[in-house]
Amino acid sequence: MKWEKLLASGRFGDSLKSLPLESSRTEFEIDYDRIIFSAPFRNLQDKTQVFPLPEQAFVHTRLTHSLEVSSVGRSLGKAAGEFLLEKYPALQKLGISSSAIGSIVAAAALTHDIGNPPFGHAGEEAISDFFRLHSYGKIWEKHVRVDQWADLVNFEGNAQGFRMLVSKQFGLNLTYATLAAFTKYPRPSLIPQRDVARKSQRKFGFFINQLVDFELMAETLGIEKISAECWVRHPLAFLVEAADDICYNIIDLEDGCTIGLVSFEETVALLKPILGDRFDEEKLKERSQTQNLGILRAMAIGQLIRETVAVFAQFEESMRKGNFDKALTDIIPSAKALAAISAVSVKKIYRSKIVLEKEAAGFQVLEGLLSVFSQALYHQFYSPELFSGQDKSILRLLPEDFPLKGWGAEVNPYPMLRVLVDFISGMTDKYALNLYRRVKGISFPGI
């Protein structure tokens, strides 16, 4: 793979082009702006990151988390860009700057959670479990292909994100380079065998009906195949992944300390190995706990950015050749410290009562919503003798543009089910909960 192609700024429907030599905004800055003003991105403000929103203390939502990941991503991309321009001077002649490379990573990082459903990773599992275990989920298996069924019983937020980014419904039409940097898992859901040594094959990055879109993007950028079903990661995807790893490790710990799940003393002890000689215990006495948390967090993130860029530079050539396939944060000098933070976070934060209660509620809400809509759709098109007045009322709650024509016993319903999952997974936590209460008769509008 060559950087000249990997950094091309073409979009679907455009002819391939390089970055303009003179422009007030690069194509990648346009990507960033389109994402910021999009409805799916705005919806992240009411999707929890880890904790339900408490009344007294600030904790992160998916929106604030995404903004912070994007900020770290821009720093990583710009620093990596400076290295690339020094190593490959020909890139400058094409009008490529370190800021443009930073913008690619920033835009891709901004969207890294855009496909996540309500209630976080529990929401992903709830959607998968519905089709895998619920009677009105399993009922669709006989009507779809094996590869389509693999998509439905393995809901993946990364694949949902790619679908949203290429969908004409949202009008984002991002550059190929930004889409490729977004795609951490360049494979479909159903493959003969997964290479467990490759981080990029741990999950999947697109649903089967986006395969053509992915193939066009990969061909345009010169992204190579590993096998008949799997591709090499775009090198900048490693930086997007690292930005997320850095933020959720450090900032989830900060949130856990803020709401009292992890003590301040333990938090300091966990961050101290990252800071090394820069840590000054005496200065902690001069500031409040909140101020100390903010300063220690900023210093830790800065150090992790420097370490990550150094490792990227070390393995850049191997990335382009498809030989490197690990998380950068697993091999930086502070990897052991991050692993210690992760272990504490799992024990004291991710398995805390407040988080588990939110996840349990999420399972009930998403299963309940999927069951009533799925049952009504199945009754109308595949078992009309069971179609009831209740089903009719439920279907009227679907979006106006929902495809409610052309389905029947001889028609593969996979495209319709994908739109149903789009509808459910695109909800905010609050909207999903309120709609669930109404369709289940727990609450009524105006009462």
UniProtKB/TrEMBL annotation:
Pfam families: HD (PF01966), HD_assoc (PF13286). Residues 62-249 form the HD domain. InterPro entries: dGTP_triP_hydro_central_sf, dGTP_triphosphohydrolase_C, dGTPase, dGTPase-like, HD/PDEase_dom, HD_domain, PHydrolase_assoc_dom. The keyword Hydrolase applies. One of its GO terms (biological process) is dGTP catabolic process. GO terms for molecular function: dGTPase activity. It comes from the Bacteria. CDD domains: HDc. Keywords: Hydrolase. NCBIfam families: dGTP_triPase. This is DNTP triphosphohydrolase. The gene is dgt.
